[in-house]
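Example A, followed by Example B.
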Amino acid sequence: MWAATLDLPDVNSFNSLVTSQSSVFYDRTGKIELFNLHQEVKRTEISFDDISVFSKNATLSIEDAEFYQHKGIKPTAIIRAIFANVTSLGYAQGGSTITQQVVKNSLLTKNKSITRKLKEWILAVKIERVLSKDEIFSIYLNDAPFGGNIYGIEEASRTFFSVHAHELSLAQAAYLAALPQAPTYYSPYGNHKEALSTRKNLVLSKMLEKKYITQEEYAAAKATKVTFNPLAQNGLTAPHFIFFIRDYLENKYGAETIDQSGFKITTTLNATLQLKAEEIVKKYALANKEKFDAENAGLIAVDPKTGQILAMVGSRNYFDKEIDGNVNVTLAKRQPGSSFKPFVYATLFKKGYTSETVLFDVKTEFSTYCSPEGKPLTPNANCYSPSNYDNKFRGPVTLREALAQSLNVPAVKVLYLAGLDNSLQTAKDSGITTLTDKDRFGLTLVLGGGEVTLLELTNAYGVFANDGVRNPYTGILKVEDGSGNIKEEYEQKENTVMDSGITREISDILSDNEARSPTFGERSALYFPGRQVAVKTGTTNNYKDAWVVGYTPSFVSGAWAGNNNNRSMQKKVAGQVVAPLWHEFMEYALSTLPQEQFKQPPLLDKGTLPPALQGEWRGGEGYIIDKKTGTLATETTPFSNKGIKVTQNVHSILYWITKNDPLNGTRPVNPEKDPQFILWETAVTKWAGMNGYPSFPSISSSWLIPPSQNTSLITPLTGQTISLSGFNENIIYPFSHALTFTVTPNDFEKVSLYINNSLIGFLTSTPFYFSVSPRDIPGVLREQNTLKVVGVLNGVQKEITYTLQINLNQ
């Protein structure tokens, strides 16, 4: 018989139990030991009678409800396991009974094979003939893994709750029964406490189902708040990182394999850098607790050229119970504030917008359910008009200035121009996986309205550092089994996800100390004399999170500060709260790295770009000149001598540029059809009027008309009609609202607007769309006014006159 050929251990003697081999974690050199899994294994054996009946019943309910009925194996489970293993070509399914688990833990090696599985089934049946059910159950409970170096129900009871196994409450017993299936994942000291609580409740529900407890006991235990003792320090270096790696390994190879098969794990961690990072995080977190009521912090360092994690600090102290220090904040989902902005700006640059493109940082209403003045147009409408960190507005700013200084109003406009879907795709391509619920996001996404992890955000910045090439993050260099066989080894998995010209532009902006100085100062914590470092901060509106992520071409680090319980800090920006921490760590890291410079972004040919993309905000109808002579440029004009002049005509960018095709050089035919146009336009024209810039060209401008253009006009035009769309002389216009209308037909060469015979401005190209706020021209207005529009074609004119009624008090 085939079973007779199997080499089976003697079930009559447990003196020949297989000795577990300890798995050991090393730093990236393979020489510095970070953690020995079986270092000082803790196990206290007790009699079966000294174990709480709650523990016995909880374990039976979740692990093997039919334990006292079967003969060591469950044939239906075996059939199911065989079918699953054959169809999947693997050996993952076991259908293990408690007896089988005793066999696995005590008599057999952990290698997965059909032969080993057959031995397990045979030995389980044999053991049932040699030992009683209570004896088998006792062995299991005394040998079960509960995480780290804790084995057996008695040791777990003492470690977690400071009680003996026979003193466990129902709720405590349910928690312990929940652990052995995946002790690292479900660890009460890890990042999956909610999952542990869910599994504890599953244990209780199964106990109720099997009538081990009453409905009242179930309800009471489910509602009981159980407190775990703080985890004692036990020679564990880089604990957050070690548990991060162990969780990955257990998911891939199984907890039992990692626990007992003698793996040698060479990680990516730089031990020296890690110790320095832990020291700095602890120092600043304790200081921030007193200064800013921000008691915790975390830090990540990654090599962008490989994705290898060099340092991971998940809290100021893993063993600090006061702040739940065991929780790894680098893996926690938090709102990133403005540190998310570079991904949105990069998305806009993909469309052809440039870093010199100007947007207006002025008070702007963005909700289309509200008026430009921020008044709801429908019941319960939520208006949205963000401000900057200092509650100041700066008027026209380039995208370079807006990103470097982290201005919010331009950033919201950038997201609208870039598109929400496009921006989310850029983030996803860069490795951010948490922004999946698009319906939750609107224009607030660019200000950090979604949740990300510090690990993913920091690694995503590596795309900017690495010329558009993404390397997935990893903490593993090599994994070897107890026999020295390589189970896995680091392999480069790079993928180009962004054009290098765009990433170089982002890096150039984020490393531009001059551009950010108006906000942060010339000698801020973001500046490193003699080194080129790109960096971005982020602070959430509710001051619950402060971030900073920065990089050189070969090193990226990110830091977070705040409170684990989501309590708000004092109202200070990230540049004050977390930047000093990040700066000290980055300065140390840079001292070990060679001097590097970012590659320069490509130069733009200004002769091919619309004025709005070249930094011109006073108008969008431009012509190229020779800067030396002031005359129109020709084909022979050197590239370096070319400049642009525009006819002065201040509008929002939506007036000048086709949002999704900015390079086509033509103005939108009907810009008012864009839902944001009136909101942006009203804010911009108001600013222009208050600062001496008419929203239409001024007749006194010395460079109003290109040098080649003829300015002579004026004889009556016959046979031509002129009309206004959007103007109603039968209503009274509020003084504070914009007056907007379109003049037709489109074949006029020039259309001028007069109020009370005062020239307000004129347009020389279609669409002839006017938008002017009465409050910006107070000197010419009365309650009853004459509005005249004059169209000119072929040197002759046609005019139309209306009554304009203004409420000067509104």
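Example B, a separate protein, is given below in the same form.
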Amino acid sequence: MSRIKMKKLIPIVIGLFLVVPCWAKAPTVKLETNFGDIVIELFDANAPLTVGNFMGYVKSGFYDGLIFHRVIADFAIQSGGFDTDLNDPNTRDPIPNESNNGLKNLRSTVAMARGLHRDSATSQFYINVVDNNSLDWKDPNEQKDPNDVGYCVFGRVISDMNVIDRIADLPTEDHVPPYDLNDVPQPPGPVIIYHATILGNFDNDPNVNFIDYSIFTNQWLDSGESSPFEVTASDGSEGDWFGFAIAVDDNVAIIGAPKDNDNTGSAYIFEYIDGNWTQQAKLTATDSETGDYFGGSVSISTNHAIIGAPGANDFSGSAYIFEYNDGNWTQQTKLWVYEDDPGDWFGQSVSISGDCVIVGARLDDLFASDAGSAYIYYRHHDGTNNWGLQFLCGPLDTSTNDNFGYSVSINGEYALIGAIGDNPANEDPDISNFTGSAYIYKHDGTSWIQWEKLTASDGEKLDKFGSSVSTDGYFAIVGARLDDDNGDSSGSAYIFEPNGLDPNDPNKWDQIAKLTASDGAADDYFGCSVAIGAGRALVGAYGDDDNGSSSGSVYIFEPNDPNSDNWEEIAKLTASDAAADDYFGSSVAIGMSRRAIVGAYGNDDSGSESGSAYIMTLCPDADLDGDCRITLNDLAVFANNWLWH
């Protein structure tokens, strides 16, 4: 071991046994949801039985896949009792009520839900959106009966109450028996807990222990770097274009190969198991035909995936939804435009979030010739597991050749749609000049409405702003792959965030940054693909020539805190086996657990243009405080969770 690494190891060891006990923090748990991460600090000194009970459920994986089934604005949000199909899992025995612990039901605190009996709490918990004094402990003189003792507070949210507020604003409805549930989130819900984990438990066993300590120290010594893991199709062959479309969600990735089997197309599911990504399934359409290009677009969210086939039926296009159940992925439904017009390219772009999917049809003629459209479907529209059309998106200022729907992204209550052909200056609205624009739609509790139109502050003809789009619900990023700042078609990308403080335009999203490559050059096509999430932005530049013509690259940006308007380039990625015409970065995606995936459909590992993809963790697992770096702060969190056991 080098002298430098030894020097780094010494403070880690000393810190565990000397520094941390003096710098102790409460045990912490992270809930990863499709609306963002929630980190909870637990008050084990005040409520030891309740915290022990909650930690037991976390360690067993009980909360994984459950939803926030009760959401009341200006009150609380509740989880721990039902999955996405509203089935209630088996729980352990109830625990004694510890509400007489001096803690109040204040905004951001976490408390146990219970039935009528004071000691009936099991797995369900709630997070207070406001101060709820009526739920506090009542002394005997105030009690109406012996069970009227209040609800036990056992923790508080330390990150991120913005996620809680987003969830609290969701539209809800009541369910009739046998569920008999009130205030259940509707589209764009549900709110799914993908994982509940004790911070510092890296190997997914029940405890934080020496194995986790070894992982933590190794990542610190290695500066938390994560080498991309390359995957290829088990049956890959020449011309498949594996990696043309990609998506990742936590420990599952989906990768499209639209030219597989003579352009019929396919998609592959990979899962992260024991430190490796392994192929779990190959998906094809039940009615597949040559020229469908199935896999030309893909997206995945928990146990559902959507796959576009834009070439189906003479390029009228279609899309397929697959569901994971009992260890298998099976086709659940097929979506298509009812007019079924050739050349619509329905399925050119797809995105899924929870129970909502959006499908772009960039050359649909419904509003104007080749103006384009986008379709939003809901999983339970007019019936359980009935993926029905909920909303048809078409811009209010639509015109010929807009290509609206060229790119799409949906996350929570927001949908983002690119229109590369738009002429936002309206010099001649009947002539498309491919400056480009993007549109934000928001669910208002009843339907989806056009919320804002995004344009580049310096947009010019042929920039194709809207070539790629992504939103995490907090930021939006839009690629303009033909922008010329660093030479012809060098490319750029723009980041926007909502500005709800503008009294004249509360719906306004402001451009806060323009991104370009530090070494950008002509024909790099920076912005051909974009992704945002986990505090990072990824921008692909498949035309970059570092390792040969069009070998490709990807750039990582992050905000320079505390000024989120200043996004800095922090890394440039290239493939370890890069070669000319790999087109690395032609597709990029960010998922839960800070996973990222990059496509290189021109890679030749299994034959010319067979394709590959590279999966990595954007921020090290040992980053426990969310700043994507490993510091003494992370050591304190880790050690205290270890010591708590």
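On Example B: Residues 540 and 585 are 4 Å apart (CA to CA).
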